[in-house]
Amino acid sequence: MQVPSGVHQLPVSDAGRMRTPVLYLHGFASSPESTKARYFAERLAAHRVTLTTPDFNQPDFRTLTMSRMLSQLGDRIDEVGGRAVLMGSSLGGALAILGAAQYAGAVDRLVLLAPAVMLAKPGHSLLPPERMAEWKHRGALPFFHYAWNEERLLDYAFYEDSLRHDPFDAQFAQPTLIFQGLRDTVVYPQPVEAFAAARPNVTLSLLDDDHQLAASLPRMWESVEEFLGLLD
Questions:
Q1: 87 phi and psi angles, rounded to 5 deg
Q2: Is the CB of residue 158 less than 8 Å from the CB of residue 64?
Q3: Does position 6 have pLDDT exceeding 60, yes or no?
Q4: pLDDT per residue over 54-73, tens digit each?
Q5: Where are the domains of the chain?
Q6: Cα 208 to Cα 216: distance, rounded to the nearest angstrom
Q7: Helical (H) or strand (E) element with 179
Q8: Contact 230, 19 (CB under 8 A)
Q9: What distance in Å separates the CA atoms of residue 179 and residue 186, rounded to the nearest whole number?
Q10: Which residues contact 133 (CB under 8 A, 6 or more apart)?
Q11: Are 207 and 182 a contacting pair, CB within 8 Å?
Q12: In whole angstroms, what is the distance from residue 160 CA to residue 132 CA?
């Protein structure tokens, strides 16, 4: 059987001992092959945990919206057996929060990496005000896509649709672990601290790192390993 792209498959002999699968939700203009996705996939596999990374650039980056991503997330939860841990980075973290609220019975717990909790709030957009006006006027603007190392067009509908999905005000009860860099200039730590402080089910770990959290990967893995009960 051919393994779908973005699925890190375990040996057949381990199939009977598999734990709750993890869905890794990549960030804006990223991909299933991100450094963090590959890092966690390798370590989870050692514990017989399957990590699947949906590609939210498909079918076309230009038509990306949060509504489309939420629908795709629901499909992938069904594909992995109807229950999953959601691990989301940046925009993927916002998606994980929204998914936990919308698919409450199917989401076991959350691991969020610099989640874009202010996605739908005024003044927290991808571009400065003058560029936002240009984006609306032209209907689409190019954004640098890190996975393809080139600019790709994105429709203004992405922004309009994002206003319908507010992760900061989402209601969810699943146990949640958040990692946030104190030197993050993309997702500022203060809103994430406020988001976590308002929710007893959320544990926040502040790290001396930037938005990528690359230097903190070993530190994060130690906490994730314990949080997911993999040391039992």
A1: -120, 115
A2: yes
A3: no
A4: 999 999 999 999 999 999 99
A5: 7-123+166-227
A6: 8
A7: strand 176-181
A8: yes
A9: 14
A10: none
A11: yes
A12: 11
Q: Which fold would CATH assign to domain 7-123+166-227?
A: Rossmann fold (3.40.50)
Q: Evaluate whether 159 touches 132 at the Cβ level (below 8 Å).
A: yes
User: Which two tokens mark 74?
Assistant: 């629901």
Q: How far apart are CA 136 and CA 116, in angstroms?
A: 22
Closest CA to 42 of 9, 2, 84: 9
What is the rounded distance in angstroms from the CA atom of residue 5 to the CA atom of residue 226? Answer: 28
DSSP state of 210: -
Go through 169-198 and write b for each residue having 16 or more CB atoms within 10 A of its CB, e for each that does not: ebebebebbbbbbeebeebbbebbeebbee
| Strand, helix or coil for residue 203 | strand
Look-up: residue for tokens 């206003």?
163
**14, pLDDT greater than 50:** no
Q: Which residues of 66-93 are buried (b: 16+ CB within 10 A; e: fewer)?
A: bebbbebbeebbeebeeebbbbbbbbbb
